[in-house]
Amino acid sequence: MSGLPGRTMGRYGVVLVAGAALWLLMAGPRKVLGLDPGHLGMILLVASAWAALYFVQFSSRDEAEHAISPGEWRARIGFAFMLGAVAYFVAKLDLFAGPGAADSADARAVARNLVMLGIAWAVLGQAMALRWKGRIQEDERDREIARHAGQWGRGMLVFCMIALAVTLGFSPAHRLQWATPFLLANLLVLALMWGWLCEYAATAVYYWRDRR
Question: Are 128 and 53 spatial neighbours (Cβ–Cβ below 8 Å)?
Fold first, then answer.
């Protein structure tokens, strides 16, 4: 019981850091202590994901935590991380519009931050795999949940692709001035991220329903 207050404070700290990261990414000032708030927010978001992984790995486990499989932990952390990335992308999407967006320093900074977030998430994924090394990471239930959740993710991705194709194919040319190559490329990235987000969300929901 002595470690419970520390664990609770640690979890609240992770939430506060993640909240500060999202504020800096989406609504922060143009400069924070002379730094780009996007870069600072990205660092804090990655740090909060690492901290969440730390608490999962080193916190003492009670009976309820034993019931949570590695696949569910990955889905929970992945959903929170990807939700922050998608929210950041959507909040800055207007920077990618317009004929001169490809040469915009702000748009390039957002794109660079998103690439770094993707790299950070790949590293975190490997760290989570190592965290459960030596432990059975999946069984038939996990594989079945992954299969169904993957269908949701692919379905959402296909829906986005069809919606974009219909919009481009059936809209008059004078209404497609917004559809620059730079914006379309980033919309495709957003669709991919949305598919991953839906897959993580579906995975977490399937695990939750399985325990009921």
Answer: yes
Alpha carbon of residue 1 to chain centroid? 33
d(CA 86, CA 190): 7
> Can you tell me whether residue 71 is helix, strand or coil?
helix
- What's the pLDDT tens digit per position in 34-84? 566 666 777 777 777 777 666 665 554 554 455 577 778 788 878 887 888
Position with higher pLDDT, 16 vs 200: 200
Q: CB of 24 within 8 A of CB of 44?
A: yes
Q: How far apart are the C-alpha atoms of 105 and 39, rounded to whole Å?
A: 13
**Apex 85 CA angle, 101 and 159, nearest 5:** 80
Beta bridge partners of 32: 35
Residue among 89, 152, 147, 159 nearest 118 (CA): 89
pTM value?
A: 0.73
